[in-house]
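Journal club prep — side note

Before the paper discussion, L.F. wants everyone to see what a predicted structure for a comparable chain looks like in token form. Sequence:
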Amino acid sequence: MPPQATCYRHPDRPTGISCVRCGRPICPECMTSASVGFQCPECIRAGQASVRAPKRAPAVRSAGQRFGVVTLTLIAINVAVFVATAVSAGIDGSSPLDNQRSPLFGDLLLAPALVQGSGEDWRLITSAFLHIGITHLALNMLALLLFGSELERTLGRWRYLAVYLLSALGGSVAIQLFGDPFQPVAGASGAIWGLMGAFAVLALTQRGDVRGIATLLAINLAISVFVPGISLLGHLGGFVAGVLSSAVVVLARGRTELQVLGLLLLTAVLAVTALTASTIVVLNL
């Protein structure tokens, strides 16, 4: 009669069970249930080592996937500009919370008389990245996060960025055309109103429910009219530019070259209008 097999890890324990992978005899203490039969501890460890643990996406990449890379980049730029103006104000002797007193703030804000009178055309765009105080910044960045994330997913990165920047430019153009030549203006509200205009266009073209965006626009319009210190012209100009730029993107869907051409043409029209308006302002001074 052949001798009874013993556990390879416990030679004093006879057993009739073998590992299904390596065939070595194992006792009840050493065996682990598998889909078919039992496995020994070494085979279990070898199997676990061969399975790669899923990699976690870095926090920055995860946030970009959730909220949109362009949206987060725009928020980061706005925050960075605010910090820069706050630091500049502190260096100049003012409170950092009064960042609008910063010399840097003065170099970037929009006033119609400064664009043509001093040749500082960059103010048409840079003013959209300025904010007066932390509350102004927080409210605009929250709106940008809410609207921008959804639009970035819907339109795509470069189209969404084009709509945002054209909306900012549209708000500046309206101020150049109809605003007080010496009234300084700053804020991303014109660009955000443009994003709301883009939402309205998408809702109409996709036959969605427009009541939500219409109500939001009505509330914001009332705030712009009755709350002092808010540029209604900048909001309306941004809204119109947002509607026009998003309409170009939607109507030329699937034709990238037409989208690019239409957006460039709209940019040219806005730029020429802004500079023409600035010339008129200078002549009237």
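L.F.'s comment for the group: Residues 256-284 form the longest helix (29 residues). Keep this in mind when we get to the figures.
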